[in-house]
Amino acid sequence: MIEWLNGKINSQIVNENIVNSKTTRSVLRLGVFVLLAAVIVLLFPRYNNAFRYHFEVGKPWGYAALTADFDFPIYKTDDQFEKEQAQLLSTFAPSYNYIRGAQRQVPVLPLQEMEWLQAENYSRIAILQGRVTKTYPLSEIYTPKSAFEHYGYDCAVNLERDTALTNTMRDKLIASLVPTQGLVQKGEKIIDHGDIVTERNYQILQSLRRAYEDESLGTRQRALSVAGQAILVALFLCLLVIYLYVFRPNYLRSTATVLFFCLQMLIVIALACLALRFNLSVYLVPFAWVPILTRVFFDSRTALFLHFTTILIVSIVVPAPVEFFFIQIATGMIAVSSLSDMTRRAQLFQTAAWILLAQVVSYTAISFAQTGEWLSIDPWMYLYFAICALMTVGCYGLIYTFEKIFRFISSITLVELTDINSELLHTLAERAPGTFQHSMQVSNLATEAAKTIGANALLVRTGALYHDIGKMTDPLYFVENQNGAENPLLAMDPRDAAQVVISHVAEGEKIARKNHLPEVIINFITTHHGTSLVRYFYNTYCNAHPNEQVDETLFRYPGSKPTTKEAAILMMADAIEARSRSLEDFSEASIAEAVNRMIDAQIADGQFAETPLSFKDVEDIRRVFTSRLTAMNHHRISYPTLNK
After folding, report:
1. Residue 631: pLDDT band by 50, 70, 90 thresholds?
2. What is the DSSP string of 10-65?
3. Which of 25, 107, 200, 543 shows its CA 20 to 30 Å from the CA of 362?
4. What band does 538 get if pLDDT is binned at 50, 70 and 90?
5. Cβ contact 53:318 at 8 Å
């Protein structure tokens, strides 16, 4: 009784630990999204915290009619202010004093000082004489050389610049410039909805932006602006989490996947914020990285959802957000559509070309739709699009990097792994030729079944090629490599023979890890027999010991069971291909019976209980296996001999 209670208590403690561990991981994954939101808000540029409008000269005002909420001055443009300053300074005269004791008949400056005056475009100087300041044009000021040429005798330098007084007078003159030109009064209409933003409108709107950013407005507006940005970012990320929870819960349960999604979004958003901070075009940023990377490792729907979330977040701070959003929607849709299954490097160049075309067409169309004028087209935008397309190709390096960091696997890697001339598969073909041929046949069967039910055909094909590499350790213990020789396992105790057969799974995992195969391929090796019985030796032992309570664990594979459609397909294909070799009658009926019996036995043994296979999937797989095996084992006619 005490032992039973202890067992119950220990079981409850284990269950509580498992629950706590799952809860901790869930909180950690949600914390990643919260951290992402906080970092994004910190990265946002602060140039328009309180002023929420985006506008460009020549484009229509896309908001409601704007009216001044308070009086504010209209500031001159930088060009205007610089021109007025230059004009004002052209009348300025630097201050000079006579050197004490020097003769004063002719004003003489050093040559270097005269060159400085000319370089600064000064046309005159002011000379202090007692309490009176007289202004002289530069034509009446000499250097020692020009004085000698004019008067015929040497004249010493007798003037020196009063730097302090010159700077003071110059600063006062500049300060006298008024930086504004007019006033917009409270309640005055600034611009109406749909009006084209002219140079004058632009100047007034920029003045309003400056007024909003003035510290005199206080911190309340700034705080509310940051709060609004934070709420929007949190909202968009919440929608992403909801999508993953409803449609892709497996992604949300994977910490590595959540980190991958957040990291790639953060990289692109950070690049966009840097571009805005340094007044660069946001169209230089390769936003297509997000859908491309997500599509390579996951699915199209998730790729598009992550892309939309990313551009919605960036739209909060970019100029002309509507134009930006439409162009980037086209970019993401083209990127995902052109990479339905990336198996060749050249596809990335094709995708970059399609992205460039989509951006050019969408930008041109939007510009025409908004203004109806050629002049609204900015030619520099096409250069930005071309640079962005070239940067898109750089995504290939990121694919390799993320594969290594997160242990994902791309279609490109799978294609490389299916090369039968690779060192590992070549070694398998040499050491265990029968196993190699068996793996090839299993690969063909599994690929057809995967295509039929919409599973990842390339993944299951790759897993099938490597699922039996553990047999390389002792190939002659397996019947397909014996070439008619006596089977050494038959001379052994059935329990020992079963352990020899079972060991090829563990050996296969060791070989796979030694050769650095991806984890997803190793999973095919460890699950292709699940926890099934080595039926031949189990039945043999039971028949030989009818009155003995047989320990099934001595005859069962250690597992684990398949958890994906692809792993389940491989388990079926492996067992059925091996079973088909023992058939004496290769008619469609006999093959169908063997297929049904084998799959029914695996289902009854609970091997597919953890997979998402549906009843329809199983029926489709049965049909494909029957059809494929019948075709592979079709009867050939015998050729007649030639009569002599």
Report:
1. confident
2. HHHHHHHHHHHHHHHHHHHHHHHHHHHHHHHHHHS--TTSS------TTSB--SS-
3. 200
4. very high
5. no
Last residue of a domain, one of 406, 427, 461: 406
Q: Are 335 and 467 in the same domain?
A: no
- Name residue 549's beta-bridge partners: none
In a domain, 184, yes or no: no
Model confidence over 287-345: pLDDT tens digits? 999 999 999 899 899 999 999 999 999 999 887 788 899 999 999 999 999 886 666 76
Does residue 28 lie within any of the structural domains? Answer: no
Count of CB atoms within 10 A of residue 275's CB?
18
Query: How far is the C-alpha of 244 from the C-alpha of 45, rounded, in Å?
Result: 29
Give the end of a domain, one of 373, 389, 406: 406
Euclidean distance between CA atoms 338 and 400, whole angstroms: 20
What residue numbers bound the domain in which 423 lies? Answer: 411-632
Q: Which residue has the tokens 């597992």?
A: 559
Query: What single-letter amino acid sits at 334?
Result: I
Residue 152: C-alpha distances to residues 105, 405, 515 (Å): 14, 85, 96
Measure the CA–CA gap between 62 and 364, rounded to whole angstroms.
18
Both 363 and 508 in one domain: the answer is no
Residues 369, 435 within the same domain: no
Q: What is the pLDDT of residues 449-498, one digit of tens each?
A: 999 999 999 999 999 999 999 999 999 999 999 887 888 998 999 999 99
| Domains of the chain: total | 3
**Does the pLDDT of residue 377 top 80, yes or no?**
yes
In a domain, 547, yes or no: yes
Q: Among 399, 401, 411, 400, which residue's Cα sits nearest to residue 520? A: 411
C-alpha–C-alpha distance, residues 515 and 498, integer Å: 27
Domain assignment of residue 111, yes or no: yes
154 and 104 housed in the same domain: yes
Clarify whether residues 367 and 229 are in a common domain. Answer: yes
Which residues does 536 contact at the CB level (< 8 Å), separation at least 6?
none
Distance CA 377, CA 366 (A): 10
Q: Which long-range contacts (CB under 8 A, 24 or more apart) does 137-146 make?
A: 138/114, 140/107, 141/107, 141/108, 141/109, 141/114, 142/106, 142/107, 142/108, 142/109, 143/108, 143/109, 143/110, 143/111, 143/114, 144/108, 144/110, 144/111, 145/111
pLDDT in tens, 100-145: 888 777 889 899 999 988 888 888 899 888 778 888 898 888 998 8
Q: Which of 188, 209, 223, 228 is nearest to 51 (CA)?
A: 209
Tens digits of residue pLDDT in 41-100: 999 987 544 566 777 787 787 777 888 877 888 888 888 888 888 888 888 899 998 888
